[in-house]
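As practice, study what follows.
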Amino acid sequence: MRKVVYLSLICSILNITLLFGQKELKTDTLNFVFEGKKLSGYIDVPKNTEPVGIVIIVPGHGKTSFNKKFWYYDSLYKNFGELGLATFRYDKTGCGDSQGKYNHEQSVYNSAKEIISAINELKRRDIPGSDKIGLWGISRAGYICPLVIQEYPSIAFWISVSGTDGLNSYPYKLKSDLVFAGLTEAKAKLFVSEYLQQKALIENGGTYKEYVDLKLKQAFRKNEFFMSYMNIDREFPKSLYDDYQRSLKVTYKRDKESNIRILVSDFDKILNEVKCPVLAIMGEKDFIVDWKKTLLLYNKTIGAKNKDILTVKTFPNGNHSLLKCKTGAPNERLESMEFCDGYIDSMTIWLKHVLDK
Protein backbone atom coordinates (compact mmCIF):
# COMPACT_ATOMS: atom_id res chain seq x y z
CA MET A 1 0.00 0.00 0.00
CA ARG A 2 2.85 2.38 0.90
CA LYS A 3 4.49 1.62 -2.45
CA VAL A 4 1.31 2.59 -4.34
CA VAL A 5 0.97 5.85 -2.38
CA TYR A 6 4.66 6.59 -2.95
CA LEU A 7 4.35 6.07 -6.72
CA SER A 8 1.21 8.21 -6.84
CA LEU A 9 3.06 10.98 -5.05
CA ILE A 10 5.96 10.75 -7.51
CA CYS A 11 3.53 10.94 -10.45
CA SER A 12 1.85 14.02 -8.95
CA ILE A 13 5.20 15.76 -8.48
CA LEU A 14 6.23 14.86 -12.03
CA ASN A 15 2.98 16.24 -13.45
CA ILE A 16 3.61 19.56 -11.70
CA THR A 17 7.21 19.59 -12.97
CA LEU A 18 6.13 18.86 -16.55
CA LEU A 19 3.54 21.63 -16.46
CA PHE A 20 5.65 24.36 -14.91
CA GLY A 21 9.31 23.36 -15.15
CA GLN A 22 9.93 22.29 -18.73
CA LYS A 23 13.28 23.15 -20.17
CA GLU A 24 13.37 24.87 -23.52
CA LEU A 25 14.51 22.82 -26.49
CA LYS A 26 16.65 23.83 -29.40
CA THR A 27 15.89 22.03 -32.68
CA ASP A 28 18.59 21.62 -35.34
CA THR A 29 18.63 19.74 -38.63
CA LEU A 30 20.90 16.72 -38.74
CA ASN A 31 20.78 14.94 -42.08
CA PHE A 32 22.50 11.70 -43.06
CA VAL A 33 22.87 9.58 -46.18
CA PHE A 34 21.34 6.14 -46.58
CA GLU A 35 21.68 4.11 -49.77
CA GLY A 36 22.78 7.22 -51.66
CA LYS A 37 19.84 9.38 -50.56
CA LYS A 38 19.79 12.26 -48.10
CA LEU A 39 17.41 11.61 -45.24
CA SER A 40 16.21 14.66 -43.37
CA GLY A 41 16.81 14.45 -39.62
CA TYR A 42 16.09 16.66 -36.64
CA ILE A 43 17.58 16.76 -33.17
CA ASP A 44 16.04 18.44 -30.12
CA VAL A 45 18.55 19.44 -27.47
CA PRO A 46 17.85 20.99 -24.05
CA LYS A 47 19.09 24.58 -24.11
CA ASN A 48 22.10 25.44 -21.93
CA THR A 49 22.55 21.80 -20.98
CA GLU A 50 24.94 19.14 -22.24
CA PRO A 51 22.73 16.14 -23.19
CA VAL A 52 23.24 13.07 -21.03
CA GLY A 53 22.19 10.88 -23.96
CA ILE A 54 20.16 10.72 -27.15
CA VAL A 55 16.82 9.02 -27.76
CA ILE A 56 16.19 7.93 -31.35
CA ILE A 57 12.52 7.87 -32.35
CA VAL A 58 11.61 4.76 -34.37
CA PRO A 59 8.09 5.22 -35.79
CA GLY A 60 5.59 2.61 -36.88
CA HIS A 61 4.35 1.74 -40.37
CA GLY A 62 3.42 4.53 -42.76
CA LYS A 63 4.80 7.84 -43.93
CA THR A 64 6.44 10.28 -41.56
CA SER A 65 6.39 14.09 -41.40
CA PHE A 66 8.83 15.04 -38.68
CA ASN A 67 9.41 18.35 -40.46
CA LYS A 68 6.03 19.37 -39.00
CA LYS A 69 4.94 19.74 -35.39
CA PHE A 70 2.70 17.02 -33.97
CA TRP A 71 1.62 17.01 -30.32
CA TYR A 72 2.00 13.21 -30.03
CA TYR A 73 5.76 13.29 -30.60
CA ASP A 74 6.31 16.82 -29.29
CA SER A 75 5.19 15.58 -25.87
CA LEU A 76 7.95 12.97 -25.94
CA TYR A 77 10.69 15.41 -26.90
CA LYS A 78 9.75 17.76 -24.07
CA ASN A 79 9.73 15.03 -21.46
CA PHE A 80 12.98 13.50 -22.67
CA GLY A 81 14.50 16.99 -22.63
CA GLU A 82 13.37 17.45 -19.04
CA LEU A 83 15.63 14.53 -18.15
CA GLY A 84 18.55 16.05 -20.05
CA LEU A 85 18.12 13.79 -23.09
CA ALA A 86 18.32 14.95 -26.69
CA THR A 87 15.90 13.41 -29.19
CA PHE A 88 16.71 12.50 -32.79
CA ARG A 89 14.18 11.60 -35.48
CA TYR A 90 14.22 11.57 -39.26
CA ASP A 91 11.80 11.28 -42.15
CA LYS A 92 11.76 8.01 -44.06
CA THR A 93 12.82 7.89 -47.70
CA GLY A 94 10.43 9.97 -49.82
CA CYS A 95 8.79 11.58 -46.77
CA GLY A 96 9.09 15.15 -45.50
CA ASP A 97 12.28 16.64 -46.89
CA SER A 98 13.99 13.26 -47.40
CA GLN A 99 15.03 12.25 -50.89
CA GLY A 100 13.84 9.20 -52.84
CA LYS A 101 10.52 7.42 -53.19
CA TYR A 102 8.58 6.11 -50.22
CA ASN A 103 8.28 2.32 -50.08
CA HIS A 104 5.40 1.07 -47.93
CA GLU A 105 6.76 -2.49 -48.28
CA GLN A 106 10.23 -1.63 -46.95
CA SER A 107 11.54 -4.59 -44.99
CA VAL A 108 12.17 -4.24 -41.27
CA TYR A 109 15.75 -5.33 -41.91
CA ASN A 110 16.25 -2.37 -44.26
CA SER A 111 14.63 -0.03 -41.74
CA ALA A 112 17.07 -1.28 -39.12
CA LYS A 113 19.96 -0.43 -41.45
CA GLU A 114 18.54 3.10 -41.70
CA ILE A 115 18.64 3.49 -37.93
CA ILE A 116 22.18 2.09 -37.81
CA SER A 117 23.25 4.64 -40.45
CA ALA A 118 21.73 7.38 -38.29
CA ILE A 119 23.62 6.11 -35.22
CA ASN A 120 26.86 6.01 -37.19
CA GLU A 121 26.31 9.61 -38.27
CA LEU A 122 25.61 10.79 -34.72
CA LYS A 123 28.80 9.11 -33.55
CA ARG A 124 30.85 10.27 -36.55
CA ARG A 125 29.94 13.86 -35.80
CA ASP A 126 30.54 13.26 -32.10
CA ILE A 127 27.17 14.80 -31.28
CA PRO A 128 26.91 15.48 -27.51
CA GLY A 129 25.09 12.57 -25.89
CA SER A 130 25.98 10.09 -28.66
CA ASP A 131 27.97 8.01 -26.18
CA LYS A 132 24.64 6.94 -24.65
CA ILE A 133 22.00 6.24 -27.30
CA GLY A 134 18.61 4.76 -26.50
CA LEU A 135 15.63 3.80 -28.65
CA TRP A 136 11.96 4.72 -28.39
CA GLY A 137 9.86 2.76 -30.86
CA ILE A 138 6.20 2.09 -31.50
CA SER A 139 4.41 -0.77 -33.27
CA ARG A 140 6.50 -1.85 -36.30
CA ALA A 141 9.54 -0.58 -34.40
CA GLY A 142 9.10 -3.68 -32.25
CA TYR A 143 10.67 -5.66 -35.09
CA ILE A 144 13.30 -3.04 -35.89
CA CYS A 145 14.76 -2.09 -32.50
CA PRO A 146 15.98 -5.61 -31.58
CA LEU A 147 17.72 -5.82 -34.98
CA VAL A 148 19.45 -2.50 -34.25
CA ILE A 149 20.47 -3.70 -30.78
CA GLN A 150 21.85 -6.89 -32.33
CA GLU A 151 24.16 -4.72 -34.44
CA TYR A 152 24.77 -2.19 -31.65
CA PRO A 153 24.83 -4.05 -28.29
CA SER A 154 25.92 -0.78 -26.68
CA ILE A 155 22.40 0.69 -27.02
CA ALA A 156 21.70 2.11 -23.55
CA PHE A 157 17.96 1.40 -23.30
CA TRP A 158 14.85 0.54 -25.32
CA ILE A 159 11.31 1.77 -24.78
CA SER A 160 8.98 -0.57 -26.69
CA VAL A 161 5.47 0.86 -27.17
CA SER A 162 2.84 -1.52 -28.59
CA GLY A 163 5.65 -3.86 -29.61
CA THR A 164 5.39 -6.95 -31.79
CA ASP A 165 6.55 -10.53 -31.93
CA GLY A 166 8.47 -11.73 -34.98
CA LEU A 167 5.34 -12.47 -37.04
CA ASN A 168 3.16 -10.23 -39.19
CA SER A 169 0.49 -8.60 -36.99
CA TYR A 170 -2.16 -8.38 -39.74
CA PRO A 171 -3.93 -11.66 -38.82
CA TYR A 172 -4.44 -10.41 -35.25
CA LYS A 173 -5.81 -7.10 -36.53
CA LEU A 174 -8.11 -8.99 -38.92
CA LYS A 175 -9.43 -11.16 -36.09
CA SER A 176 -9.96 -8.08 -33.91
CA ASP A 177 -11.88 -6.34 -36.70
CA LEU A 178 -14.09 -9.39 -37.26
CA VAL A 179 -14.95 -9.68 -33.57
CA PHE A 180 -15.72 -5.96 -33.42
CA ALA A 181 -18.00 -6.42 -36.45
CA GLY A 182 -20.01 -9.05 -34.58
CA LEU A 183 -18.41 -12.47 -35.09
CA THR A 184 -17.65 -14.59 -32.05
CA GLU A 185 -14.02 -14.87 -30.94
CA ALA A 186 -13.97 -18.58 -31.84
CA LYS A 187 -15.48 -18.09 -35.28
CA ALA A 188 -13.19 -15.16 -36.13
CA LYS A 189 -10.14 -17.16 -35.05
CA LEU A 190 -11.24 -20.15 -37.16
CA PHE A 191 -11.93 -18.05 -40.28
CA VAL A 192 -8.56 -16.28 -40.08
CA SER A 193 -6.77 -19.61 -39.57
CA GLU A 194 -8.51 -21.14 -42.59
CA TYR A 195 -7.77 -18.08 -44.72
CA LEU A 196 -4.07 -18.25 -43.86
CA GLN A 197 -4.01 -21.98 -44.59
CA GLN A 198 -5.33 -21.24 -48.08
CA LYS A 199 -2.71 -18.51 -48.64
CA ALA A 200 0.08 -20.86 -47.56
CA LEU A 201 -1.16 -23.63 -49.86
CA ILE A 202 -1.07 -21.38 -52.91
CA GLU A 203 2.30 -19.83 -52.06
CA ASN A 204 3.88 -23.24 -51.43
CA GLY A 205 2.94 -24.48 -54.91
CA GLY A 206 -0.22 -26.40 -54.02
CA THR A 207 -2.07 -27.89 -56.98
CA TYR A 208 -5.49 -26.68 -58.08
CA LYS A 209 -7.00 -29.98 -56.92
CA GLU A 210 -5.53 -29.45 -53.43
CA TYR A 211 -7.00 -25.95 -53.46
CA VAL A 212 -10.47 -27.22 -54.43
CA ASP A 213 -10.32 -29.99 -51.81
CA LEU A 214 -9.39 -27.43 -49.17
CA LYS A 215 -12.23 -25.12 -50.23
CA LEU A 216 -14.77 -27.85 -49.49
CA LYS A 217 -13.57 -28.05 -45.87
CA GLN A 218 -13.39 -24.32 -45.14
CA ALA A 219 -16.12 -22.91 -42.92
CA PHE A 220 -15.48 -19.28 -43.87
CA ARG A 221 -16.75 -19.92 -47.41
CA LYS A 222 -20.23 -20.41 -46.00
CA ASN A 223 -20.14 -17.07 -44.20
CA GLU A 224 -21.36 -14.26 -46.46
CA PHE A 225 -19.99 -11.53 -44.21
CA PHE A 226 -16.43 -12.87 -44.21
CA MET A 227 -16.46 -13.56 -47.96
CA SER A 228 -17.61 -10.02 -48.63
CA TYR A 229 -15.29 -8.46 -46.04
CA MET A 230 -12.25 -10.18 -47.60
CA ASN A 231 -13.54 -9.64 -51.14
CA ILE A 232 -13.09 -13.33 -51.98
CA ASP A 233 -14.32 -14.48 -55.39
CA ARG A 234 -16.24 -17.74 -55.10
CA GLU A 235 -15.34 -18.64 -58.67
CA PHE A 236 -11.62 -19.14 -59.13
CA PRO A 237 -11.08 -21.32 -62.24
CA LYS A 238 -7.88 -23.28 -62.77
CA SER A 239 -6.62 -20.90 -65.46
CA LEU A 240 -6.77 -17.95 -63.08
CA TYR A 241 -5.35 -20.03 -60.25
CA ASP A 242 -2.35 -21.05 -62.36
CA ASP A 243 -1.78 -17.49 -63.60
CA TYR A 244 -1.97 -16.10 -60.07
CA GLN A 245 0.40 -18.73 -58.71
CA ARG A 246 2.94 -18.04 -61.47
CA SER A 247 2.79 -14.30 -60.77
CA LEU A 248 3.62 -14.72 -57.07
CA LYS A 249 7.03 -13.53 -55.96
CA VAL A 250 7.20 -14.81 -52.41
CA THR A 251 10.27 -13.52 -50.56
CA TYR A 252 9.21 -14.55 -47.06
CA LYS A 253 8.49 -17.67 -45.04
CA ARG A 254 5.45 -18.54 -42.96
CA ASP A 255 5.37 -19.89 -39.43
CA LYS A 256 4.66 -23.63 -39.70
CA GLU A 257 2.19 -23.66 -36.82
CA SER A 258 0.12 -20.56 -37.59
CA ASN A 259 0.84 -19.92 -41.31
CA ILE A 260 1.52 -16.27 -40.43
CA ARG A 261 4.28 -14.48 -42.34
CA ILE A 262 7.62 -14.34 -40.54
CA LEU A 263 8.97 -10.78 -40.56
CA VAL A 264 12.05 -11.46 -38.41
CA SER A 265 13.62 -14.92 -38.44
CA ASP A 266 14.74 -16.39 -35.09
CA PHE A 267 13.18 -13.43 -33.31
CA ASP A 268 13.26 -15.17 -29.93
CA LYS A 269 17.02 -15.69 -30.27
CA ILE A 270 17.51 -12.02 -31.17
CA LEU A 271 15.50 -10.93 -28.13
CA ASN A 272 17.57 -13.28 -25.98
CA GLU A 273 20.62 -11.19 -26.86
CA VAL A 274 19.08 -7.92 -25.64
CA LYS A 275 21.02 -6.93 -22.53
CA CYS A 276 20.00 -3.28 -22.13
CA PRO A 277 17.10 -2.16 -19.87
CA VAL A 278 13.74 -2.49 -21.66
CA LEU A 279 10.44 -0.79 -20.83
CA ALA A 280 7.50 -2.51 -22.56
CA ILE A 281 4.34 -0.42 -22.67
CA MET A 282 1.06 -1.86 -23.96
CA GLY A 283 -2.54 -0.77 -24.33
CA GLU A 284 -4.94 -3.54 -23.30
CA LYS A 285 -7.40 -2.46 -26.02
CA ASP A 286 -4.84 -2.77 -28.80
CA PHE A 287 -6.55 -3.90 -32.04
CA ILE A 288 -3.31 -3.92 -34.06
CA VAL A 289 -0.88 -6.18 -32.19
CA ASP A 290 -1.46 -9.07 -29.81
CA TRP A 291 -0.01 -7.38 -26.74
CA LYS A 292 -0.44 -10.44 -24.52
CA LYS A 293 1.53 -12.59 -26.95
CA THR A 294 4.29 -9.99 -27.19
CA LEU A 295 4.65 -9.66 -23.43
CA LEU A 296 4.72 -13.44 -23.05
CA LEU A 297 7.58 -13.54 -25.58
CA TYR A 298 9.43 -10.67 -23.85
CA ASN A 299 9.18 -12.45 -20.50
CA LYS A 300 10.46 -15.72 -21.98
CA THR A 301 13.42 -14.00 -23.62
CA ILE A 302 14.50 -10.57 -22.34
CA GLY A 303 13.23 -11.13 -18.82
CA ALA A 304 14.15 -14.80 -18.46
CA LYS A 305 17.80 -14.48 -17.51
CA ASN A 306 17.63 -11.12 -15.75
CA LYS A 307 14.19 -9.97 -14.62
CA ASP A 308 15.64 -6.60 -13.57
CA ILE A 309 16.17 -5.42 -17.16
CA LEU A 310 12.54 -5.86 -18.25
CA THR A 311 9.82 -3.55 -16.94
CA VAL A 312 6.22 -3.96 -18.13
CA LYS A 313 3.46 -1.38 -17.96
CA THR A 314 -0.04 -1.94 -19.42
CA PHE A 315 -2.98 0.45 -19.62
CA PRO A 316 -6.52 -1.02 -19.49
CA ASN A 317 -8.06 1.85 -21.47
CA GLY A 318 -5.21 2.27 -23.95
CA ASN A 319 -5.38 1.69 -27.71
CA HIS A 320 -2.49 0.94 -30.06
CA SER A 321 -1.23 4.52 -29.75
CA LEU A 322 -1.71 4.56 -25.96
CA LEU A 323 -4.56 7.05 -26.27
CA LYS A 324 -7.55 6.80 -23.97
CA CYS A 325 -10.29 4.81 -25.66
CA LYS A 326 -13.41 2.72 -25.05
CA THR A 327 -13.02 -0.02 -27.69
CA GLY A 328 -9.57 0.36 -29.24
CA ALA A 329 -10.99 -0.12 -32.74
CA PRO A 330 -9.04 1.78 -35.43
CA ASN A 331 -12.22 3.60 -36.53
CA GLU A 332 -13.27 4.58 -33.00
CA ARG A 333 -14.07 8.28 -32.70
CA LEU A 334 -12.17 9.31 -29.60
CA GLU A 335 -13.76 11.87 -27.31
CA SER A 336 -10.37 13.57 -27.08
CA MET A 337 -6.84 12.88 -28.27
CA GLU A 338 -5.33 12.23 -24.88
CA PHE A 339 -2.62 9.90 -23.62
CA CYS A 340 -3.57 7.31 -21.01
CA ASP A 341 -3.08 8.62 -17.48
CA GLY A 342 0.41 7.69 -16.37
CA TYR A 343 1.78 6.85 -19.85
CA ILE A 344 4.28 9.72 -19.97
CA ASP A 345 5.01 9.46 -16.25
CA SER A 346 5.84 5.75 -16.54
CA MET A 347 8.55 6.54 -19.11
CA THR A 348 9.87 9.48 -17.10
CA ILE A 349 10.16 7.53 -13.85
CA TRP A 350 11.75 4.54 -15.59
CA LEU A 351 14.24 6.67 -17.56
CA LYS A 352 15.23 8.58 -14.43
CA HIS A 353 16.03 5.25 -12.77
CA VAL A 354 17.98 3.98 -15.81
CA LEU A 355 19.97 7.20 -16.22
CA ASP A 356 20.84 7.33 -12.51
CA LYS A 357 22.50 3.90 -12.64
